[in-house]
Amino acid sequence: MKRMIALSCLLLLCVYLVYNTPQISKKNTEVETVETGATNDLEPNEEILDVILPEFEYVHEKDKDKEVDGYIVETYREYEVHRDQNGNIIKQMPTSNYEYVRYKNY
Question: Taking a C-beta distance cutoff of 8 angstroms, is the pair 99, 58 a contact?
């Protein structure tokens, strides 16, 4: 019983020291902010394409579809798409990646 009381007191002392240490309580209160002067109204040029992360989408290219050994093979080409804040496409570039979907022709 004495051992449990001693361990409980030690635990309470540790909790008290952890939550009342000045370094922890003041750690996040001294955050400095910096004005960058950046604006949100950027024009679609090459500089904005460096800032915007591209999305990659596959587009079905129907003219490359063919039938091979009783299977229909559809061709999808990957495109790198840059969009503005409104979702409008600024730039779309084809990549060298293709995906193929094959299914039985009945």
Answer: yes
Closest CA to 74 of 104, 106, 43: 104
> How many CB atoms within 10 Å of residue 87?
6
SS3 content of the chain, % helix, strand, coil (to 5): 30, 35, 35
User: Is the pTM value of this prediction over 0.70?
Assistant: no
| Cα–Cα distance measured from residue 95 to residue 58, given in angstroms and rounded to the nearest whole number | 10
Q: What is the pLDDT of residues 1-19, one digit of tens each?
A: 888 888 888 888 877 777 7
| Residue 12: C-alpha distances to residues 5, 25, 30 (Å) | 11, 18, 28
What's the rounded Cα separation, in Å, for the pair 4 and 1?
5
Only one residue has tokens 């990646």, namely: 97
| The predicted structure's pLDDT at residue 76 | 94
Span 87-103, pLDDT tens digits: 888 888 999 999 999 99
Residue 45 CB coordination number (10 Å): 9
